């Protein structure tokens, strides 16, 4: 799998911002079939940082309604990545 296909986008929420500020952890939406080794390799190559640990989880899609019709958002996988102290990921810092 190509490293640019593993990481989809950063997740920027209030909880993710608190993790970034207090614990040096960054949250990304990743490919659902990617494993921890592929995620670590992609983060280290793309952002030139050293990854200390990774936690992954699959987030269930919420039910959405449009009038009388209902459906579900798709499920996605997220990764919480901890990097070495003193290092930052610049693409997330500017948002």
**Corresponding CATH architecture:** 2-Layer Sandwich
Mean pLDDT: 92
Number of strands: 6
Which regions are unreliable across 5 or more consecutive residues at pLDDT < 50? Answer: none
CATH H-level superfamily = RRM (RNA recognition motif) domain
Q: What structural class should be given to the helix and strand makeup?
A: alpha+beta
Helix/strand order: HEHEHEEEEH
Shape: globular
- Helix count from the secondary structure assignment: 4
Helix content: 25-40%
Task: Tell me the domain tally.
Answer: 1
What is the CATH C-level name?
A: Alpha Beta
* Estimated radius of gyration: 15 Å
**CATH topology label:** Alpha-Beta Plaits
Detail the topology: elements first, then pairings.
Elements: H1 3-6, E1 7-10, H2 14-23, E2 25-30, H3 36-47, E3 51-59, E4 63-66, E5 69-72, E6 76-83, H4 90-93
Antiparallel strand pairs: 1-2, 2-6, 3-6, 4-5
3D architecture notes:
It is a single chain. The chain has a single domain (3-64, 71-87), classed as RRM (RNA recognition motif) domain (Alpha-Beta Plaits, 2-Layer Sandwich). It is built from four helices and six strands, in the order H-E-H-E-H-E-E-E-E-H. Strand 4 (63-66) and strand 5 (69-72) form a beta hairpin. With 95 residues, it is of the alpha+beta class. The protein has helices at residues 3-6, 14-23, 36-47, 90-93; strands spanning 7-10, 25-30, 51-59, 63-66, 69-72, 76-83. The strands form two sheets. Strands 1-2-6-3 form a four-stranded antiparallel β-sheet. The chain has a two-stranded antiparallel sheet with strand order 4-5. The protein is globular.
């Amino acid at each position: 799998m190509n490293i640019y296909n593993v990481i989809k986008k950063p997740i920027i929420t209030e909880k993710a911002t608190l993790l970034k500020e207090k614990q040096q952890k960054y949250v990304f939406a990743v490919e659902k079939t990617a494993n921890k080794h592929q995620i670590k390799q992609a983060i280290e190559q793309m952002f030139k940082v050293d990854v200390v640990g990774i936690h992954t989880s699959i987030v269930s899609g919420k039910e959405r309604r449009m009038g009388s019709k209902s459906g579900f958002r798709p499920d996605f996988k997220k990764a919480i990545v901890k990097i070495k102290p003193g290092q930052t990921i610049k693409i997330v810092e500017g948002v």
